[in-house]
Amino acid sequence: MSDIKTTLTTAPKALPPSDQLGFGQYFTDHMFVAKYMEGKGWYDAQILPYGPLPLDPGASVFHYGQALFEGMKAFRQADGKIVFFRPEFNHDRMAQGAERMCLEAPPLDLFMQGLHELVKVDQRWIPHEPNTALYIRPTLIGTESFLGVRPSRETMFFILLSPVGSYYSEGTKPVKIWTEEKYLRAAPGGLGAVKAGANYASSLKAALEAKKKGYAQVLWLDVEHQGIEEVGTMNVFFVFKNEIVTPALNGSILNGGTRDAIIELLHSKNLPIVERKITITEVVERLQKGELLEAFGTGTAAVISPIGELHYQGKDWVINGGQTGELSTKLYNEITSIQRGQMPDTQGWITPLV
Ligand SMILES: Cc1ncc(COP(=O)(O)O)c(C=O)c1O
């Protein structure tokens, strides 16, 4: 597949004010859509004016939840160049997720072609200001219409674009986190390691209840309510006096692109980063002993989100005096400077728009 049919909108929207973008509130003028059918392959790749998708109400996505998505960003660098951050990582993760979800993954060339063409068409939407970006949402859904549980023989791949500012209303300020002991996001053998829509459906109630209690996100534990998994929609890092720990990828944790980049940066600085199981009991014990210096979440949306307060079993534990830590600041500055072209991309993370 190499031809993408493009139909441009006749009613381009007004750009939202870039100081009021928030996260995911606006969509651009166009979207990319391609279809797959067993026996036919990928067909009908198009860039279309942004709008509703015609879907049969019997489509498997509505009944059996066959939905998988990605989250990535494009940036406008200081010299005007438009770049993507590690798009191959996202394609690779989508392909692995599609295998688990019994959906057809778009081949790398279709994914990249759709991405580049769509961003080119909608490039006026990429904001200029610091801490802004174009968030990219590639999505896969099962579209075959049938009843009776089995994998869909048809898949739709689409890409949406959204100009964004800060993910949290707090910006990059430390957030308050609720350790969740009632609800689970994922379990071994389930979908936790892939970006299935179902994981987010599963997480909504806990997040809502935590918000009502005044917490920005939840800290997800494993089925034993001991092992730490993730924080909200981010991976999590704990900076102790003698080591930096992030939970090992155990099959129910998402392999975050930001997590992966942070681990690589820490290795390059010869800092003692360890991927292992870490329990909430260990974190609280070491916090009490004054050994926990910083904790932060990592993800495409916020990059680094410092944890200022951690609630566990009726007590609020303050981390680093509720302030953003030195390492969190340094890592945030480095990743965002590489993304913005203000620091050399020695890791090969940046792909220019062609
Ligand atoms: C559940 C979950 N964990 C971790 C992450 C972080 O992944 P990434 O760094 O690739 O954005 C995300 C995505 O944003 C997520 O939804």
UniProtKB/TrEMBL annotation:
Transmembrane segments: none
GO MF annotation, one: branched-chain-amino-acid transaminase activity
Necessary cofactors: pyridoxal 5'-phosphate
EC number: 2.6.1.42
Substrates-to-products reaction catalysed: L-isoleucine + 2-oxoglutarate = (S)-3-methyl-2-oxopentanoate + L-glutamate; L-valine + 2-oxoglutarate = 3-methyl-2-oxobutanoate + L-glutamate; L-leucine + 2-oxoglutarate = 4-methyl-2-oxopentanoate + L-glutamate
Enzyme class: transferase
Listed InterPro entries: Aminotrans_IV (IPR001544), Aminotransferase-like (IPR036038), B_amino_transII (IPR005786), BCAT-like_C (IPR043132), BCAT-like_N (IPR043131), BCAT_family (IPR033939)
Keywords, alphabetical: Amino-acid biosynthesis, Aminotransferase, Branched-chain amino acid biosynthesis, Pyridoxal phosphate, Transferase
Pathway where this protein functions: Amino-acid biosynthesis; L-leucine biosynthesis; L-leucine from 3-methyl-2-oxobutanoate: step 4/4; Amino-acid biosynthesis; L-isoleucine biosynthesis; L-isoleucine from 2-oxobutanoate: step 4/4; Amino-acid biosynthesis; L-valine biosynthesis; L-valine from pyruvate: step 4/4
Function: Acts on leucine, isoleucine and valine.
Family membership: Belongs to the class-IV pyridoxal-phosphate-dependent aminotransferase family.
PANTHER family: BRANCHED-CHAIN-AMINO-ACID AMINOTRANSFERASE, SUBGROUP IIII AMINOTRANSFERASE
NCBIfam families linked: ilvE_II, PRK13357.1
Name listed for the protein in its UniProt record: branched-chain-amino-acid transaminase
Organism: Bdellovibrio svalbardensis
